[in-house]
């Protein structure tokens, strides 16, 4: 038995050695592919897994410092190369090349580099973010009307109701004195969970009185890290073929079932009781009715994306929730943190809010929000410092030649991932000196004119720009304006000016 074990160990050792040699040879050939192409290769020492922070979003975003550092290594180059395991990835730095990839030559880079198998993860697989080609185009054209200002304006009173719930919560918390301590992220997630559930589906949650409301509960299940979830989601992002083989999915099963059940019950109630609301879910119901009228036969050859079934409604409802809940709450937290750390800028914004409310007979209106230029600057600067996503990933869908500095061109082959490093560009000292400082005046019309256009894109850019951008901006602006109309926001001894915003803030009555 000992001899057998020794032989087995020797056999495995030899095999591992052979595998290592093959892997090294393969990586060498991949590196040579970049070198032959005259692409500047960024060497990076990245530890993907650490025991202190095992979380899928760490794999996806790494850290601010690391991303900015890698971006700055490209100084003097229009683009560069990195590796995602064995796959070469093109990283863009030049605004004109970025413009070509995400706008002018969009047809050559129209797909996002994110894979989700619709048969394994049926709701995420229908998300416009992961859809590709003509299926994405058709889905996008159906959903775009839900996010025009014409659609958003009637929803604004619902956002104001949630703002009133929040103010009631703050007033109750502060009634014992002139100030109260609140956790900014907690406050923001309660607000966005209620705002999205009410505006999109007509479901009132009141998370300020019920911290365990269902939408917040399942939002946490989706987003909070666990070791197994990190393995599954990390595999989906980094090794999609392996994820499909293992039937890993990005969306937890209980979240899928919750949205299927809740949205179906709500849709059935509306149809059975002739309830019509001017919200996102109503648009989805209308799309389903149109699809059913157009496809009255039971022809099985009709593709899934033309049928618009209950599964499609649940998928788009989940998409709206995830985009409006976590992305908006993170942005809102950053804004509140910046205002607490920069009292002079907070005072400037407060004066603008008070002035606009006074002009509108003591009311905060949808139209008034659209005219608050300093509020726009505050939001743009906050999202510059900490964009919702740190980079845009595209896949080359048609061969394309990128012009290089020396007059040569680089041929980008179909299937090559192309990355626009949003966070790095947002902190490039060439465009934003003292980039760590909060300076809203960077976004005056005069200052914006001094920078190339494609150096600020917190919601993405081009035909794939975030669909929910206007809704996100509306709910963030509404809440910030409502709070500042009655309270000051101050730092506490625990508040740090750092890359993360989970510390306490002090809300003080004016």
Outline the fold blueprint.
Layout: H1 2-36, H2 56-61, H3 64-72, E1 79-84, E2 87-92, H4 95-104, E3 111-112, H5 133-143, H6 149-152, H7 156-174, E4 179-183, H8 184-201, H9 214-223, H10 227-238, H11 240-246, H12 253-272, H13 280-294, H14 304-307, H15 310-341, H16 343-359, H17 366-370, H18 373-385, E5 392-395, E6 400-403, E7 409-412, E8 417-420, H19 422-426, H20 445-448, H21 469-484, E9 487-491, E10 504-509
Helix pairs in contact: 7-8, 7-21, 8-15, 10-11, 12-15, 13-15, 15-16, 15-18, 15-21
Structure report:
- The protein has two domains: 1-36; 37-509, Cytochrome p450 (Orthogonal Bundle).
- It has 21 helices and ten strands.
- The protein has helices at 2-36, 56-61, 64-72, 95-104, 133-143, 149-152, 156-174, 184-201, 214-223, 227-238, 240-246, 253-272, 280-294, 304-307, 310-341, 343-359, 366-370, 373-385, 422-426, 445-448, 469-484, and strands spanning 79-84, 87-92, 111-112, 179-183, 392-395, 400-403, 409-412, 417-420, 487-491, 504-509.
- It has a five-stranded mixed β-sheet. The protein has a three-stranded antiparallel β-sheet with strand order 4-10-9.
- The protein is globular, with a radius of gyration of 25 Å.
- Mean pLDDT is 82; it is low at 1-36, 44-63 and 499-510.
């Amino acid at each position: 038995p000992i001899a057998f074990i020794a032989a087995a160990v020797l056999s495995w050792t030899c095999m591992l050695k052979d595998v290592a040699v093959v892997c090294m040879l393969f990586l060498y050939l991949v590196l040579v592919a970049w070198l032959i192409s005259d692409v500047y290769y960024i060497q990076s020492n990245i530890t993907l897994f650490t025991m202190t922070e095992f979380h899928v979003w760490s794999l996806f975003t790494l850290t601010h410092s690391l991303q900015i550092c890698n971006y700055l290594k490209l100084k003097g180059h229009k683009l560069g190369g990195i590796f995602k395991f064995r796959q070469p990835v093109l990283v863009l730095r030049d605004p004109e090349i970025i413009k070509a990839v995400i706008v002018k030559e969009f047809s050559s880079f129209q797909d996002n580099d994110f894979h989700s198998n619709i048969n394994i993860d049926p709701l995420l697989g229908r998300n416009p973010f992961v859809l590709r080609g003509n299926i994405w185009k058709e889905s996008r054209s159906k959903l775009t009307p839900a996010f025009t200002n014409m659609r958003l304006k009637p929803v604004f009173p619902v956002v104001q109701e949630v703002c009133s719930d929040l103010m009631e919560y703050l007033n109750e918390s502060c009634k014992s004195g002139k100030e109260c301590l609140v956790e900014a992220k907690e406050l923001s997630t309660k607000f966005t969970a209620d705002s999205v559930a009410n505006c999109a589906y007509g479901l009132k949650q009141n998370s300020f009185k019920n911290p365990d409301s269902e939408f917040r509960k399942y939002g946490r299940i989706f987003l909070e890290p666990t070791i197994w979830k990190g393995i599954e989601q990390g595999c989906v992002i980094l090794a999609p073929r392996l994820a499909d083989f293992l039937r890993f999915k990005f969306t937890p099963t209980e979240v899928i079932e919750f949205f299927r059940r809740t949205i179906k019950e709500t849709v059935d109630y509306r149809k059975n009781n002739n309830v019509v609301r001017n919200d996102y879910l109503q648009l989805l119901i209308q799309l389903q009715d149109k699809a059913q009228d157009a496809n009255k036969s039971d022809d099985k050859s009709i593709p899934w994306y033309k049928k618009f079934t209950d599964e499609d409604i649940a998928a788009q409802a989940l998409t709206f929730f995830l985009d409006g809940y976590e992305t908006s709450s993170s942005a809102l937290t950053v804004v509140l943190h910046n205002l607490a750390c920069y009292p002079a800028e907070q005072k400037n914004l407060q004066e603008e809010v008070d002035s606009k409310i006074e002009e509108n007979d003591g009311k905060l209106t949808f139209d008034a929000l659209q005219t608050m230029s300093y509020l726009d600057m505050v939001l743009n600067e906050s999202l510059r410092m900490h964009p919702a996503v740190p980079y845009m990933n595209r896949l080359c869908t048609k061969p394309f030649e990128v012009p290089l500095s020396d007059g040569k061109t680089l041929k980008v082959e179909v299937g090559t991932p192309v990355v626009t490093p949003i966070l790095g560009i947002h902190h490039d000292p060439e465009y934003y000196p003292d980039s760590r400082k909060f300076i809203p005046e960077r976004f005056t019309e005069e200052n914006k004119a001094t920078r190339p256009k494609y150096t600020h894109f917190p919601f993405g850019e081009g035909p794939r720009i975030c669909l929910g951008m206007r809704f996100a901006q509306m709910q963030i602006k509404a809440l910030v304006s409502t709070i500042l109309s009655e309270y000051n926001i101050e730092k506490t001894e625990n508040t740090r000016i750092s890359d993360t915003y989970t510390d306490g803030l002090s809300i003080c009555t004016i």
